[in-house]
Amino acid sequence: MVKTASVGNIVSNVAEKLGSPVYETSVGFKNICELMLKADILIGGEESGGSGFKNHVPERDGILGSLFILEMMAMEEKSIDEILKELKDEYGEVHYDRIDLLHDKPNRMQLIPNLQSNPPRQMCGLKVEKLSTYCGVEVVNGIKFHFADQRSWLLIRASETEPLMRIYAEATSDDRVQRLLREGQRLLERVAKG
Prior knowledge:
alpha+beta; Alpha-D-Glucose-1,6-Bisphosphate, Chain A, domain 3; six-stranded antiparallel β-sheet; four-stranded mixed β-sheet; globular
């Protein structure tokens, strides 16, 4: 499986149970497609809901994805609500959100490298255990903070197509997600001021 950095942990958790490796790429289906053409990957997906499948066109296909879901429902003889409940019972609730911030100044693509040079070691009471960076066309355009609780993360990235900075978070509660998003916004404001 391959997913973009902005996709929640449940994909990795399910893949791990199935014994399948998971690759993580920069945001954008073009990055998923590139990896799917090079490696033996069954499915690739992004946060916006786009999914691509092995031995099919190297692009998102919502119709085929919907047909696979219908086939799964028929084979399991369960409704989609029943299947989702089973996922929630086995892997826990998903608490995730994103905010988009207008940033039309020319320094947008430099904010992440500036943040990368002096990242925080702790956020919202969570120790930063690991950092991942993601490259755009010319520069590092995304940084992901992985926290010690193993379930929470924060991703800050510059859009390459719009004058936006995007902040994504997943955590153990909606409250923590909102606090992480606010902290991400404060970090961006600090870096933007120089």
